[in-house]
Amino acid sequence: VLRSWFHGSAGLQSGSQSGFFPPVEGAMLPKGSFDNKVAFITGGGTGLGRAMTTTLSQLGAQCVIASRKLDVLQQTAEEISSQTGNKVHAVQCDVKDPQAVSQCVDQMESLTGLPDVIINNAAGNFVCPSEGLSPNAWRAITDIVLNGTAFVTLELGKRLIQKQKGASFLAITTIYAESGSGFVVPSASAKAGVDALYKSLAAEWGRYGHRFNIIQPGPIKTKGAFSRLDPTGVFEKEMIGRIPVGRLGRPAEIANLAAYISSDFATWMSGAVIRFDGGEYVWMAGEFNHLCCVTPEQWKTMEAMIRSTKGS
Amino acid sequence: VLRSWFHGSAGLQSGSQSGFFPPVEGAMLPKGSFDNKVAFITGGGTGLGRAMTTTLSQLGAQCVIASRKLDVLQQTAEEISSQTGNKVHAVQCDVKDPQAVSQCVDQMESLTGLPDVIINNAAGNFVCPSEGLSPNAWRAITDIVLNGTAFVTLELGKRLIQKQKGASFLAITTIYAESGSGFVVPSASAKAGVDALYKSLAAEWGRYGHRFNIIQPGPIKTKGAFSRLDPTGVFEKEMIGRIPVGRLGRPAEIANLAAYISSDFATWMSGAVIRFDGGEYVWMAGEFNHLCCVTPEQWKTMEAMIRSTKGS
Amino acid sequence: VLRSWFHGSAGLQSGSQSGFFPPVEGAMLPKGSFDNKVAFITGGGTGLGRAMTTTLSQLGAQCVIASRKLDVLQQTAEEISSQTGNKVHAVQCDVKDPQAVSQCVDQMESLTGLPDVIINNAAGNFVCPSEGLSPNAWRAITDIVLNGTAFVTLELGKRLIQKQKGASFLAITTIYAESGSGFVVPSASAKAGVDALYKSLAAEWGRYGHRFNIIQPGPIKTKGAFSRLDPTGVFEKEMIGRIPVGRLGRPAEIANLAAYISSDFATWMSGAVIRFDGGEYVWMAGEFNHLCCVTPEQWKTMEAMIRSTKGS
Amino acid sequence: VLRSWFHGSAGLQSGSQSGFFPPVEGAMLPKGSFDNKVAFITGGGTGLGRAMTTTLSQLGAQCVIASRKLDVLQQTAEEISSQTGNKVHAVQCDVKDPQAVSQCVDQMESLTGLPDVIINNAAGNFVCPSEGLSPNAWRAITDIVLNGTAFVTLELGKRLIQKQKGASFLAITTIYAESGSGFVVPSASAKAGVDALYKSLAAEWGRYGHRFNIIQPGPIKTKGAFSRLDPTGVFEKEMIGRIPVGRLGRPAEIANLAAYISSDFATWMSGAVIRFDGGEYVWMAGEFNHLCCVTPEQWKTMEAMIRSTKGS
Ligand SMILES: NC(=O)c1ccc[n+]([C@@H]2O[C@H](COP(=O)([O-])OP(=O)(O)OC[C@H]3O[C@@H](n4cnc5c(N)ncnc54)[C@H](OP(=O)(O)O)[C@@H]3O)[C@@H](O)[C@H]2O)c1
Ligand SMILES: NC(=O)c1ccc[n+]([C@@H]2O[C@H](COP(=O)([O-])OP(=O)(O)OC[C@H]3O[C@@H](n4cnc5c(N)ncnc54)[C@H](OP(=O)(O)O)[C@@H]3O)[C@@H](O)[C@H]2O)c1
Ligand SMILES: NC(=O)c1ccc[n+]([C@@H]2O[C@H](COP(=O)([O-])OP(=O)(O)OC[C@H]3O[C@@H](n4cnc5c(N)ncnc54)[C@H](OP(=O)(O)O)[C@@H]3O)[C@@H](O)[C@H]2O)c1
Ligand SMILES: NC(=O)c1ccc[n+]([C@@H]2O[C@H](COP(=O)([O-])OP(=O)(O)OC[C@H]3O[C@@H](n4cnc5c(N)ncnc54)[C@H](OP(=O)(O)O)[C@@H]3O)[C@@H](O)[C@H]2O)c1
Predict the structure, then answer these.
(1) ipTM of the complex
(2) Which positions ≥6 away from D145 have C-beta within 8 Å?
(3) Shortest distance, CA C266 to any CA of chain B (angstroms)
């Protein structure tokens, strides 16, 4: 009888509690919070990058978005710009190529000048058993995620330092940068590297007027992430069952958090690592959380057994 | 000659960079963000608690502040209320006494109903070599910080669960909850306990509509903290020298962060632990950050020596 | 079809790999490693404490074990002593009572002198939904685990400092001290407090010749732990499915680790926090580890879908 | 008067306590612990790698050491072998080149068969302000440390999996992998990546009989590390002042720890991250540890001031 207690539930939550946690998707910061500011967002053409660009643009920033696919960037730039009335520039750039990064920053300098806000959001990832990873597959991910972030950050940092201009740097990593995770190992390693890069520079480059912070998102539905991490759609329900808040995140929610961190309201925030995941990480990591599906009746049985235990 | 390189500097930063990081002290969230919401703030009569109460009240919340000194609470309540036009209630409560906590919540229920926002901010602390700590001194701190936070959180949690009402819980701990720290050991232990309590409940009580988050502040000048942690004022300059952003934090800055976390803009945030410290923690913890005071000339010497090294 | 992929497996591992990881239960350190040393072990009468006492005694230490049940202690003391030929003393002590702790140390001083090795291993715990916790239930656990450890540590520390005697302190906490965990919340909070206490004193009391380290065990079968955490025995199989090494730990294994940390081979180890859990923690915490049960066929399907994805 | 309290001391410890913590440099494990085992150590020709090879060889292992400088490797191999009587093989390998890694493993397979013990110890590093880092300098470090470790680990892992052979993998990273650190940023990022790689594979590859653990060393005097991190020797004294144990570590001490982790005594250890640093990390990270140099007289003054404080 006992063995069947958890049959079918696998210690997951129902998700029905999500009604308590409705997403708010409008812009949070005061209008004009980014007036006269320039924001540079890698991977700004799609998914979370697009959402963050939209919010910064609404709040007054002039945005520059950069990634490999110029057509995607241009369409996004036009759509956002026509919605917000503020300029969004599209610049082609493969972040894993230091020369392309340098040329991209040249182009930005002539378009808008050096940025006040930098968001390193570009990344690549796919699920795969690690014994199937070739050295090239390893590098395909780490070159974008770790080297790409470093090249963008160092290139911009050097130029900003030379011009004695302050800036806010934000990196979008992932909750498993902390714990590691099987089946996404190059991404886990590279993202952990980015976390260390940003914590290191938060310490070293404060004296030049730079802040560095990190958001570690949990699952937020975007085509880019979900098509490569859950191609069959099988895992989505299971994922939700691990999230205490009972639902996936929305791009507009992370955009508000990113805007806050990048704004002058957060000038005292540096070296922070902010998990944004509906509670998924703490739920997974805590050894006894799967007891969520024990019923009140079963608790009574267990409590009685515990009480009757004598000695050790 | 080399031995005198760092004389006088002790590897600290000058703080002159703080001009890049001006504090913004106005309220950040949209007006009315907390309309029709009730917020309960322990230690709300002074320091950071007062600042958070002020911000929530400005944004529309009806606030209940609780601590031991009723006169202090009442004066704060009146001052804030007259400034914001929203009611602030003062309720006496020693959080380390479970019965007092229960009575305080009774009183709140009849005044305002159960809260939507809870901020566990009350604490005690003092600097002292650990070999000077009696069991009573140990308990004086841990009873307030750990047990007090637990009693408030459990009491409110149980009643909210029974009424099927969701809420946002926030705890104010400290950066040294993570690392530990000598000379403030009861506080370090109790605050680490609070961090674990909030991460645990973030996982367990999501299903009841509750979120739990943590802010770990670095040094923010308040009378309460500084008179007990730096009574002579000797350490303030040294502290600033360890902060990459070059200045102490301001109460209004943490109040904006706390308001964001407690608001509906952050309904997907739970189990987050947010360091808010101008970068102090990463600066202290990173082994080579004291090289900040090596001069360009000295770097040249060192670089030449490194280049000429052969083998291992 | 896809939805049934993981039916029955719930993303757990089989445990059949445990054959690769056979436990070795003999003593590891050189004979006589603890000759002329005195070791003090709280909770040394049962479970892990008994195993650690046995190993230290085998290696030459004179041991003092302390807990509430004198009869249990005495029987253990005799059994170990007759096995190893070294004295084991039983001293009654409820660690949550500072006076009892002081008297216990008095007794030890006259029996053996102050200890060279201290292991804080006594604890209490039970599983329970947090909304069922009364203030007394909260204190029943935290008083033993956090206050008890502090009282023992401070009492011994002060006396050792006064006698200018060095010592190694070790605390046995738990993997969920790091993450928190629902359903064992007082234990999670108190154990996190112990971690902070030991990290703090590692920093502060090095100058007095003291080292402080922590072992965070995963599930090791003892009557004391399992009767209160898994009274029905239902969860054991699930637990094993989360452990990469495929089996529970054995008391003798943690005893060897504890002996190493407490020995002169580890005089350079202080402030270390050593997870000892067969990999359970990293397995639980990593977001994609449940993909362990995807079959090779299914991986092929997924890979093909990922490859055919275009754009973001 | 107060401002001069800390003059000259800069909040550092004297190091005179090191007498309490004498290093023990003989081998710890029972003779023959690695009989019939093959160990593969990258960077085994010098420094810590050489020390770990020596210990494993003494304990019966047949060792293969690999790095770029074949002459250095060969000399070390002969010296160790003649001392221990067990074979040590020298194989040239630049770990950042996947083909070289594959050839090296081919060579090892024909010499000794696949290894039972793998220690990823090879690394590169130098101190430098981050604004001075070119993309090539960045890659010079990360290619060795992160990619090199990944290539070695994946190559060996795949072959071991195919042969259904279990193994213990150990990575040597650094305490600042956790916190990040300025002035060694490529190393900090790459080492953090290695930590994530090993935690990830601990979770994923347990089912194949593999364990993965990490040692994060603090400062242990080797020519390779110190000539590139402290070329002038100026910082050594300061470093010691930050180490609670009052001295640098010795290569033989980490060798004993590494041997334990790699041995069958530790088959239940996987996913562990072991700081081995004399307490340096917790000392640096803890906000109030610099109070170590407050004198008893000064404490009295401070205590009196704290006691006389009223209110907050
Ligand atoms: N969505 C989630 O659940 C989730 C969770 C955790 C973390 N994240 C992180 O959030 C960020 C955004 O992800 P997303 O979900 O929005 O997915 P996405 O839409 O696929 O975004 C990735 C972006 O990176 C760009 N990119 C990829 N390779 C690049 C390169 N070599 N150079 C320049 N740009 C490159 C892509 O544009 P091009 O193809 O045009 O180059 C794309 O715009 C990523 O860092 C991801 O790791 C997401
Ligand atoms: N300021 C900083 O630099 C800093 C840094 C890190 C963390 N923090 C944290 O921030 C929080 C606020 O500190 P603060 O700087 O604003 O100092 P504070 O003004 O001294 O605030 C502490 C508050 O706690 C209340 N309190 C103390 N014991 C209590 C008890 N037994 N029951 C109920 N209330 C009690 C006090 O009011 P009564 O005296 O009326 O009871 C007081 O209002 C604390 O949790 C502190 O640990 C502050
Ligand atoms: N076994 C596991 O899987 C596991 C996992 C993680 C952590 N741990 C930790 O490992 C340690 C040992 O646990 P165990 O599994 O060996 O269970 P155990 O046999 O129940 O050990 C607990 C010991 O603590 C003593 N104790 C309890 N309350 C005390 C008090 N007030 N004063 C003095 N001694 C007290 C008990 O003796 P009396 O009843 O005679 O007082 C008993 O000997 C604990 O710290 C536990 O949290 C165990
Ligand atoms: N000593 C410390 O205080 C300390 C502190 C923290 C961490 N660590 C870590 O401990 C490990 C050993 O350092 P150590 O102090 O012993 O310094 P070391 O003697 O310089 O050791 C580094 C070894 O790595 C090898 N190596 C470098 N590049 C390589 C490549 N591309 N391919 C293959 N092998 C390569 C070197 O040999 P070749 O030149 O022949 O290639 C050398 O034997 C490193 O991982 C280091 O990061 C040391």
Answers:
(1) 0.97
(2) D123, D124, D125, D186, D187, D190, D191, D193, D194
(3) 21
